[in-house]
Amino acid sequence: MSFFNQSATFERTWAGTRRHILEVVENGKYSHGAKVAELESALAAYTGARFVVGVNSGTDALVLLLRAVGLKPGEEVVVPAFSFGASATSVVLAGGTPVFADIEADGYGIDPAAVADAAGDRTRFVMPTHLFSRLADIDGVLRVARRLDLTVVEDSAEAIGMRHRGTHAGLFGAGGVLSFFPTKTLGALGDAGAVLTDDARIAATADALRHHGRFGATIADFPAISTATGLPGVNSKMDDIQAAVLLSKLTTLDSDIARRAELASRYSEALAGVSGVRKLPERRPDSVFYVYVVEVDARDDLAAYLSAVGVETEIYYPTPLHLQPCFDGLGYRKGEFPNAERACRHTLALPLYPDMPAGDCYRVCDAIRDFYHGRRG
Ligand SMILES: *Cc1c(COP(=O)(O)O)cnc(C)c1O
């Protein structure tokens, strides 16, 4: 049973995708062209962002956002100890230093109280990450950020469709990002990402940085760049072919999200009360089931058993960020962030994608039940 598969989704949306792709091919501009601009407008309408800047990955979106909000060398960004690596490596790539904070005991987002403990004299930003199927405690993060005078930038790479009090993820602070990596809720046929912001200056800077720092339209504008942004740009343009795919899939995004929620409900019903399953994801108003993650006992043994009986699962994420070898130099120790370490030890993502047959859900749950019964008996 596949963890993820979008071939059926593509067949379902192929007519629209084909039309958009043909327009790209005929238009003749295949990178940073009209289709990218069309996608940016459509995403602005979907999220409510004033500005959307399409780039070539969610990771690049984080790096360019951090540079655009004015992160300076040596300045610190508080990031959760439990997240995808890019939440912290983007800070380093943008010239800053990550400072880790633990996640909440009952969730996967940064703990606002831990942000206050982690922040010091050189801390200027905090980057909450919205993981799996729900937002971080964004009200708590905004409160602590206001008190400590920190700017909020969100790693909302997984959070398309997640809203709180009518605001879409990524727009609670200075800006956020989206990832369109194929497995994400809105996935391309390759890599793509975007910066979301309501701030015209941040948008203009990210816009310039993605395109070698160019503000103008012609090669002759190049010399103006460095004086305009003071920053060297990169090549992080989005491919129009990916924009074409995303525009087509955007039309079914809300129904895909509803289908994900339906499958998640089936999982939750079938797994309720199963011994060995410690925690099921909550269904909340902000929930979008990008992935369905449970916490279980004997996680690695269960994952090996499921793999042996043909069920693919994923572990997001086996190692907390503060214990990643690339951050050895920061001097963190094992045991410092117990909630992050708990999540790394117990979480398991089960198969979930909009066109997954409902029967697969039950087969996965049967296999999980068999595993724990076998261990007890
Ligand atoms: C996917 C993801 C990213 C990076 O996005 P890419 O498009 O893969 O570069 C960053 N942060 C989180 C939390 C993610 O899930």
TrEMBL record:
Gene3D superfamilies: Aspartate Aminotransferase, domain 1, Type I PLP-dependent aspartate aminotransferase-like (Major domain). The modification N6-(pyridoxal phosphate)lysine is found at residue 184. The keyword Hydrolase does not apply. CDD domains: AHBA_syn. GO terms for biological process: antibiotic biosynthetic process; polysaccharide biosynthetic process. Belongs to the DegT/DnrJ/EryC1 family. This is Pleiotropic regulatory protein. It comes from Amycolatopsis japonica.
